[in-house]
Amino acid sequence: MEFSQLRIFQAVAEEGSITRAAERLHRVPSNLSTRLKQLEEQLGVELFVRERQRLLLSPAGKVLLDYTARLFALHDEAHSAVQGGQPAGDFVLGTMYSTAAIHLPGLLAQYHRTYPAVNLQVQSAPSGELLEGLLTGRLDAALVDGPLELAGLDGVPLCDEKLVLISEADHPPVRSALDVQGRSVFTFRRGCSYRMRLEAWFANDHAAMGRAMEIESYQGMLACVIAGSGVALMSESMLASLPGRESVAVHPLAEPFASATTWLMWRKGMVGANLNAWIELQQAAWPIQPAQARASA
Fold it and tell me: Locate the HTH lysR-type domain: which residues (predicted)?
């Protein structure tokens, strides 16, 4: 069993397709099929089952995927250790879209300058997908809406966010979800933590939320709201960065829906030199307040 075989196995497991995995790895599909077959023969088990043109992990495959993530982490840790514990190798960081746009640019630039031997990769996605990436080992760490109490994860807070509802400029004040019930809502796809907060806000006020219109950018959401097509929820810092923000009405929310805390999360026991270096830079830029506790489960 070679690392190259495991990387192919991991890519196919994450993509659910040999063709897409081949594109990701810049290799031909026939080569991946051959290497996977060799790996299954070596292990004496089937790692995938085919269902509706998609490859799904078998029970044995799920076990191997967990070990694969741990082996890659140990590989990177060993690489750093023999270099004197200095950060080096791959470091894959997941982040929410708003965090990537507002809070990460300075930290990313400083990390690149300080640790040029690290191949830092940033992947943006809704919180739900980021957590899945953490648990499967696809991500080394992720900035998500928290705090979280999931077995196997640990973390530290990055920053607090104030959340606001935006509507077209001439909309009357919004005091509860009843004032906008039935209206279309512009949001990211399912798995977005802010979308879940908005759904909980409507449910708390016993108001019917209108149709959820999925848009993959805050700029797009703002444009639709300006046009009078519906409402959207976003952080105050995100709104402040968008051109055209003066063309909408901003409505504050009551607690517990008015605020959120972004956390850096990782799998317990998987803190290597690369992640330690990031945590140190993050805490220097965003000191943890005394009232903020360390996440743990």
Answer: 1-58
What are the helix (H) ranges across 83-117? 97-102, 104-114
Q: Alpha-carbon distance 74 to 220, whole Å?
A: 41
First to last CA, the chain: 33
Taking Cα atoms as reference points, which of 9, 2, 26 lies closest to residue 63?
9
Q: What is the pLDDT of residues 161-190, one digit of tens each?
A: 999 999 999 999 999 999 999 999 999 888
Write down the CATH number for the domain with range 86-159+260-285: 3.40.190.10
| CATH number for region 162-258 | 3.40.190.10
Reply yes or no on whether the pLDDT at 147 is more than 80: no
- Identify the CA nearest to 254 among candidates 210, 212, 200, 209: 200
Q: What is the 3-state secondary structure (H, E, C) of 220-240?
A: HHHHHHHCCCCEEEEEHHHHH
Domains of the chain by residue range? 3-81, 86-159+260-285, 162-258
* Residue 104, amino acid: L
Task: For residues 45 and 170, give the distance between their C-alpha atoms in angstroms, rounded to a whole number.
Answer: 64
- % of the chain at pLDDT higher than 90: 45
